[in-house]
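Customer escalation, tier 2.

The customer says the design service returned an amino acid string that "doesn't look like it belongs to this structure." They asked us to rerun it and document both sides in this ticket. The original structure tokens are below, unchanged.
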């Protein structure tokens, strides 16, 4: 199998991107979480201790009681006592974010239970002026030919993945757009336009400025009759910084409804689709774990098996879909996603080391630039496995 040829990514090398995430990005995130709300000193101390542990110590276990609601052995006991950098990066990064929730008493009965530590940052982004400008552009889009509208909606959802609040905290964040380096948009279109309409599932990534174009795309699928129903999979509770939860979806629909012009109509339609059951929110616990989708539980696998098409959004979902491994960038996307129970489309901007499904010529050209093209967020892919 291809998987045996690619080692899992870890963060032990100080010159690696994963190492920079733990040592450069995470301190910024910890500071934001600590200062966004007037936290008691015990929470601030717990956040500081987590940062020290994850950058210079070994993995320790959180309070066992706080993990009791999670039904899978995600937080691997064999990694406890092991240096963080020597554990798989996907696991370590996920565990870091899980431990943030413990540090801020998210699961503990009391006044801080259920308070999203990233809510202030999410709310500020959603209310920002750039969102007003992006939503106003919908009015112009409505005047274009249908094919142009489709391409624009897909590109908006694709590049919306750059609006990742954890990515923005890192020094590797790019400012330009390098382009779509693997583009199977025509195959994506054919799956929806050239077949009878069915249920479409979308695995969401980030809230705010990424979730808005995702919702607009889903509204188009329902309004144009390209999907009979839509299932939007989100996180059941906060996970990575800007990951979308049910509350974030409702906030985004309200933001659309409160806008002017076409955006307002989209928001009203989406609210109606939710009421009618044509747009359904689901929040499986598996989405807040460090396992690849190949290891998804049977009940979630059955949900995707019933879908006419599943759209996977973003970098983390991509890593879980193909495996967080050092694949050769020409490794076939279709082969690495053969485990997924049904047709799948991946819309992703590149913000980590994982890269697959590229042509040899594209890889050669990107390597020749001398840029860290895998991690800057300047390049994107649209991959399809029908």
């Amino acid at each position: 199998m291809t998987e045996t040829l690619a080692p899992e990514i870890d963060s032990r090398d100080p010159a690696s991107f994963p190492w920079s995430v733990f040592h450069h990005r995470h301190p910024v995130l910890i500071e934001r979480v600590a200062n966004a709300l007037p936290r008691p000193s015990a929470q601030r101390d717990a956040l500081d201790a987590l940062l020290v542990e994850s950058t210079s110590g070994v993995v320790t276990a959180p309070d066992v009681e706080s993990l009791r609601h999670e039904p899978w052995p995600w937080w691997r006991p064999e990694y406890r006592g092991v240096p963080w950098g020597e554990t798989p990066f996907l696991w370590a990064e996920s565990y870091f974010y899980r431990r943030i929730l413990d540090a801020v008493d998210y699961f503990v009965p009391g006044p801080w239970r259920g308070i999203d530590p990233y809510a202030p940052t999410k709310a500020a982004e959603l209310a920002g002026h750039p969102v007003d400008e992006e939503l106003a552009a919908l009015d112009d889009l409505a005047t274009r030919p249908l094919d142009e509208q489709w391409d624009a909606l897909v590109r908006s959802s694709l590049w919306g993945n750059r609006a990742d609040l954890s990515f923005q905290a890192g020094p590797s964040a790019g400012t330009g757009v390098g382009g779509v380096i693997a583009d199977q948009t025509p195959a994506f279109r054919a799956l929806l336009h050239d077949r009878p309409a069915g249920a479409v599932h979308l695995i969401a990534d980030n809230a705010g400025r990424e979730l808005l174009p995702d919702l607009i795309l889903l509204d188009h699928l329902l309004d144009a009759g390209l999907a009979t129903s839509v299932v939007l999979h989100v996180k059941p509770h906060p996970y990575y910084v800007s990951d979308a939860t049910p509350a974030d979806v409702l906030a985004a629909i309200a933001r659309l409804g409160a806008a002017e012009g076409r955006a307002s109509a989209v928001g009203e339609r989406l609210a109606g689709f939710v009421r009618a059951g044509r747009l359904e929110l689901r929040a499986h616990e598996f989405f807040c774990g460090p396992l690849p989708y190949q290891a998804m539980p049977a009940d979630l696998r059955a949900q995707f098996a019933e879908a006419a098409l599943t759209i996977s959004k973003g970098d983390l979902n991509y890593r879980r879909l193909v495996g967080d491994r050092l694949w050769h960038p020409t490794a076939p996307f279709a082969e690495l996603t053969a485990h997924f129970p049904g047709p799948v489309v991946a819309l992703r901007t590149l913000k980590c080391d994982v890269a697959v499904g590229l042509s040899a010529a594209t890889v050669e050209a990107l390597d020749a630039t001398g840029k860290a093209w895998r991690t800057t967020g300047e390049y994107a892919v649209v991959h399809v496995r029908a």
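Tier 2 assessment: The sequence is consistent with the input. Residues 164-176 have pLDDT under 50 and may be disordered. Residues 135 and 177 are 20 Å apart (CA to CA). Sent an explanation to the customer and offered a walkthrough call.
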